[in-house]
Model the fold of this input.
Amino acid sequence: MARNSIAANLLMFILLGGGIWSAVVMQKEVFPQFQLDVVEVEVAYPGAAPSEVEQGILRPIEEAVRGVEGIRELISEAREGRGEVLIELVAGQNRMKALQDIDQAISRIRTFPDQIEQPEVSLQTRQQEVMLVALYGPIDVWELRKLAEQLRDQLQSHEKITQVELRRVPQYVTHIEIPRQRLREYGLTLSEVANIIRTNSQDVAAGSVQTSAGEILLRVKGRKQWADEFAKIEIVAGQDGPLVTLGDIASIRDGFEEIGFHSQFSQTPAVELNVYRVGSQSPIEIAAAVEETMQDFETILPPGVKWRIDNNNAEEFKRRLGL
Done:
């Protein structure tokens, strides 16, 4: 009997020790992590009605990808100025190969309207959001966005934080206004000037150029150029006459696209930043790192600008650990 009692106690301690060890080393998540087998195709068609988006974008894409192996279902949506196609893959399909095949199929389409932007083809992923940080206050939206970008960089410089994304922020645009008289003076059209800008800009190739009523509107991604750099673009070569730059004939200003930006908190402009966990990162450690960073960042905030944390999944994780 004594031997059995000792063995039972030993087994109990082994199981207890194993449980403690598992609790320490086990990857801690608020929700299970998994991958989505969905390819997303987005195409901007500025100024187009939903019916034009359906005819000019969605139907050609649906026809082009129909022959790609491993597609389970297509879901298309046409909106004002934009079309989206979600392509669900068969379970177990090679996701990267399917992404490449779909991208190549779309690149072969020759019937797209000239006004569309470059189609964006990407693999959807399930991001693990830890929390949302909001900056808000009675300051200019331009300054608020720059402040949010500064905060994003400071958060990502912390060793515990890997991924932070701006959310609900207005997009940068550059407005270029050229009087008709100036165009006539140099024998130019607005479209010709837009093409010169497109050819000479390192940014515009990844964005879009629109022309209307004497104005050129530039939407770009990964912006490296601002109004003063665009002003230096040569419009008329100076071989037999004076060199004419864009700044000589146009009024150029940087700004934001106002459409679609309505984020406010306490009736003041607001910008949000999503903080995500990557791989085996702990949501509790990330939350602590955010709090630490925000305490430092708070000291440089302009008067009236405040911050708050919402959707704190680290708190939910702590609650579940306590169950």
